[in-house]
Design a protein that fits this description.
The protein is an alpha/beta fold. The chain folds into three domains: about 5-85, Arc Repressor Mutant, subunit A (Orthogonal Bundle); about 90-160 and about 265-294, D-Maltodextrin-Binding Protein, domain 2 (3-Layer(aba) Sandwich); about 165-260, D-Maltodextrin-Binding Protein, domain 2 (3-Layer(aba) Sandwich), CATH 3.40.190. The chain has nine helices and 14 strands. Strands 4-3-5-14-6 form a five-stranded mixed beta sheet, covered by helices on one side. Strand 9 (about 200-205) and strand 10 (about 210-215) form a beta hairpin. Helix 1 packs across helix 3 and helix 1 crosses helix 4 (about 60-85). The N and C termini lie far apart (about 55 Å).
Length: about 290
């Protein structure tokens, strides 16, 4: 029995929640995953998981074994990384998650230049506005546009952006300018979903944050679609300035409600804290910082 392999399988069951999810990830059958667990429990002489037809839960012994196994596997991975650091070449795969708009607009040119410098690295990028749980191992780095950070991760600020409110000149000519945020109740709004603010827009009123719930006519998790809708005169949008730069430069959108603009929001590269970092991770994060500083 490969004890380390069985420990890895057990840890992934705990983290993913089902045998079938682990089987899919490892490209094995569910029966094989079940066999690994049975062998592991038999070798230890204890039950690690309470199984029902609908759920799995850790036993007391299982909880203790999970945390010690997780630490042992992480120590082993860090040992391998520390040895590999002695090599001169940066190589391997980076699993990256980024917000849909920021990733779609800005990250491809960054990745293109990085891969020119480090041709033996491969990058897998997923775009999602919901921050991933880095502890489940699906991603090495998560880019976040946020003012709230998980205290359990390393966060390096790569840039910052303003969160502003915009409309097209045509929309404002037909519907008038909102003089204050309360006026938004009589305007057509375009809402960005899947953000930490939920159904609300954020503003600054006399130095204090204030949330306004808008009566939106179009909602999407894609800021580029909402900016295009705003440029077509469909309504008012609140978005990071980075997402609307091209529309501002062309005059298709103008900023409104400037007196209520929120403080700048930071863009972070986040990753798990550990004793040793692979060269692919440190080189990519350092590259990001230098790129956006330029």
């Amino acid at each position: 029995m490969d004890k380390f392999n069985h420990m890895r399988v057990f840890c992934r069951i705990v983290e993913l929640g089902t045998f079938s999810a682990v089987a899919k990830e490892l490209k094995l059958s569910t029966m094989m995953i079940s066999k690994y667990m049975a062998q592991l429990e038999a070798s230890l002489g204890v039950i690690l998981l309470n199984r029902t037809t609908r759920s799995l839960s850790l036993t007391g012994a299982g909880e203790a074994y999970y945390y010690r196994s997780k630490q042992l596997l992480e120590d082993l991975a860090e040992l391998e990384v520390s040895v590999q650091q002695h090599g001169e070449r940066v190589k391997g795969q980076i699993k990256l998650c980024a917000p849909i708009d920021f990733g779609g607009i800005y990250m491809v040119p960054v990745i293109e230049q990085y891969l020119r410098q480090y041709p033996e690295v491969k990058i897998s990028m997923s775009l999602d506005n919901k921050p991933p749980n880095l502890r489940d191992g699906r991603f090495d780095i998560s880019l976040l546009v946020t003012d709230k950070l998980d205290p359990g991760v390393v966060a390096r600020k790569i840039a910052e952006t303003e969160l502003c409110t915009y409309a097209s000149p045509a929309y404002l000519a037909n519907n008038g300018y909102p003089d204050c945020i309360e006026d938004l109740s009589r305007h057509r709004c375009l809402h960005y979903v899947d953000t930490p603010q939920g159904d609300y827009w954020l503003f600054n009123v006399d130095g204090e944050p204030k949330r306004i719930k808008t009566d939106w006519v179009l909602a999407s998790n894609n800021g580029r679609a909402l900016c295009q809708a705003a440029a077509l005169g469909m309504g008012i949008v609140q978005a990071p300035r980075l997402s609307v730069m091209s529309y501002l430069e062309s005059g298709e959108l103008v900023e409104i409600l400037r007196d209520y603009r929120r403080p700048n929001v930071a863009i972070y590269a986040t990753y798990l804290q550990r004793r040793f970092y692979p060269a692919k991770l440190t080189s990519f994060v350092d590259f990001l910082l230098a790129y956006f500083e330029r």
